[in-house]
UniProtKB/TrEMBL annotation:
One Pfam entry name: UDPG_MGDP_dh
Family according to the record: Belongs to the UDP-glucose/GDP-mannose dehydrogenase family.
Top EC group: oxidoreductase
SMART domains: UDPG_MGDP_dh_C
Name under which the protein is recorded: UDP-N-acetyl-D-mannosamine dehydrogenase
Domain UDP-glucose/GDP-mannose dehydrogenase C-terminal residue range list: 310-408
Length: 422
């Protein structure tokens, strides 16, 4: 079996490597010559647990090669980004560009699988696009179709990608049932989880639904944290207690929602049906507004104090080195613009401060120095390293813990008791 994976990013590269490990010959295609060169030398350009060892192994055995040029294959997996534009409208330009590339080598018997998160209807658009470019082929939907096209979203969690690529269930949506079966056959090579077939439309909407579900649930937690602030209640305690109910499972509040998926994908659903998505849209707005609220709260705290302030964390979530679309980075950079050299950023996963801090005067420091020198600490990421700081090292500090990692931290004096209406 020969497989071509288009896009060697956070999903494409691990997927290519896992398929190559099954013994298939895999060609990874990327527009970036640097990425191609890095992979061909057996190295990786992204941080992901165990990925370096896997890639160097399959490259050394000649099972995985990378190129900027496509070549004929039996299966094509498209794993390119689908961003949105300024109006939150999905941009499937990279997907269509990848399809154009595939069209140059597509032949009867091949399977084309789209894995990129995509608005509902995109897989059919890919089919229509390929039909225009290759009128000589019989594409699904036409009599005696000899090419299969399917949608199979990735659903792996950064930090656990190699485990989840194998263990998670997969939803495989075919343009026709035959396409789904053909793609199913492919995924069974490396997936241990269940592989469930459906239509392309249902699979596309399923992916968006999963991330919108998480976004709405995080928004609920973020809204609760604001209410709890107003009422002078500890939101972490309330959530812990409420979650003792057998049918309640509230997620964790934080400084907002980051990453490339959860803050993006819900918009694809909203865009698909704006009139019927007030909840999903509002959840997005609640989560985005949470970052602004955290900036305001932290600013008030910093203004009331003197001396250096530690901002703990820049990553978009715990224990990863990914700073793109990170609410922690957004908050810390806003504080740096406002408070300049008082801001000391601690981020064990950063070698230098990102460009958002250029010209602000803020500096990167290590945790020990921050504990020694900063009387004020703003927790923005729940890295294990921060979680493990014991209470005696935090005693007497003014702490704004947006992630709830230090439940034993003495709280600032509660606001005056509420006057209840009689
Ligand atoms: N977050 C909270 N509170 C929580 C959980 C998360 O504030 O209780 C924040 C995180 O700190 C982070 C953001 O949400 O800023 C997203 O983190 P995440 O761990 O929820 O998700 P991602 O973006 O790493 O990966 C998600 C996953 N989707 C779901 O869990 C439904 C993953 O399975 C998907 O494959 C991935 O999106 C994707 O590629 O779509």
């Amino acid at each position: 079996l020969t497989v071509c994976v288009l896009g060697l990013g956070y999903i494409g590269l691990p997927t290519a490597a896992v398929i190559a490990r099954t013994g298939a010959r895999v060609l990874g295609v990327d527009v970036s010559p640097q990425v191609v060169e890095t992979v061909n030398s057996g190295r990786v350009h992204i941080e992901e647990v165990d990925l370096d060892g896997l890639v160097s192994g399959v490259v050394a055995r000649g099972k995985l090669t990378a190129s900027t040029q496509i070549a004929p294959a039996d299966v094509f997996v498209i794993a390119v980004p689908t961003p949105f534009d300024a109006d939150h409208a999905p941009d499937i330009g990279y997907v269509l560009k990848a399809a154009t590339t595939v069209a140059t080598v597509l032949k009867p018997g091949d399977t084309v699988i789209l894995e990129s998160t995509s608005p509902v209807g995109t897989t059919e658009k890919v089919r229509d696009f390929l039909a225009q470019l290759r009128p000589d082929l019989r594409l699904p939907g036409s009599e005696g179709a000899d090419v299969a096209i399917a949608y199979c979203p990735e659903r792996v969690l950064p930090g656990r990608i190699l485990v989840e690529l194998i263990d998670n269930d997969r939803v495989i949506g075919g343009i026709t049932p035959r396409c789904a079966r053909k793609a199913l056959h492919f995924y069974r090579r490396f997936v241990r989880g269940a592989c469930v077939t459906t239509t392309a439309h249902a699979a596309e909407m399923t992916k968006l639904t999963e991330n919108a579900f998480r976004d709405v649930n995080i928004a609920f937690a973020n809204e609760l944290s604001r209410v709890a602030d107003t009422l002078g209640v500890d939101v972490w305690e309330v959530i812990r207690l409420a979650n003792r109910h057998p049918r309640v499972n509230i997620l964790q509040p934080g400084p907002g929602v980051g990453g490339h998926c959860i803050a993006v994908d819900p918009w694809f659903l909203v865009h698909g049906d704006p009139a019927n998505t007030p909840l999903i849209r509002t959840a997005r707005e609640v989560n985005d507004a949470k970052s602004d609220h955290v900036v305001a709260q932290a600013s008030a705290l910093i203004e009331a104090t003197r001396g250096p302030v530690a901002c703990l964390g820049l990553a978009f979530k715990a224990n990863i080195d990914d700073f793109r679309e990170s609410p922690a980075l957004k908050v810390a950079a806003a504080l740096a613009r406002r408070f300049g050299d008082r801001i000391r950023v601690v981020e064990p996963y950063a070698a230098a401060l990102p460009s958002a801090f250029d010209g602000t005067g803020a500096t990167l420091t290590d945790l020990d120095t921050a504990i020694e020198t900063c009387a004020t600490m703003i927790v923005l990421v729940d890295h294990d390293l921060f979680r493990s700081v014991p209470l005696d090292e935090r005693a007497g500090k003014r702490v704004y813990d947006t992630r709830g990692i230090w439940p034993d931290q003495p709280r600032a004096p509660a606001p005056a008791p509420l006057r209840l209406a009689s």
